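Researcher: Structure for this, please.
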Amino acid sequence: MAVHKLILDNVFEEDLYTLIAIHCTLEDYRLAYLLNKHLGISLVRKPLDLDYQNKKSTYSIFEWEDNKQQTIWNLVSNVCKTEDYRQRRNESLFDSEEKITRTAYLIPEYKTVNYFLKIDNEIDSSKEKYILNNVLKAPQIATAYNIDINQLKSKDNLIFS
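Model: Predicted structure, token format:
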């Protein structure tokens, strides 16, 4: 009996993208405006935020589709803060509610990063440096740098479609 062997080298090829970490304290819409201004792009907020863990954590996301370069740009928040109220039961005269703030991260390995700029399609290093330099031109941005996507443990969180 003949043995048939299938070789699937290119079938499960990973998506190629560039990921830039951005440290700043701006609100998401202000950062999107600054990136639009300095990079000449048109990021627009998506109607629905990214929803993980069944609405326990949501992350704002902006998107721009560059039809000329066939590239999709995404600006996504890394931090989600939620507030819960819990009834405090003390044996005191007054019962009160206490507020609990929980923080969740889209990419837990980078807890100090505020936002990620994901550019689908792998770009060459000179264009990557150009983009990074233009991001750093904004005085409100503390720092920005490239992230090696092969080192990420939670890269599945960066699948937006």
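Researcher: Any notable elements?
Model: Residues 22 and 144 are 4 Å apart (CA to CA). The radius of gyration is 20 Å.
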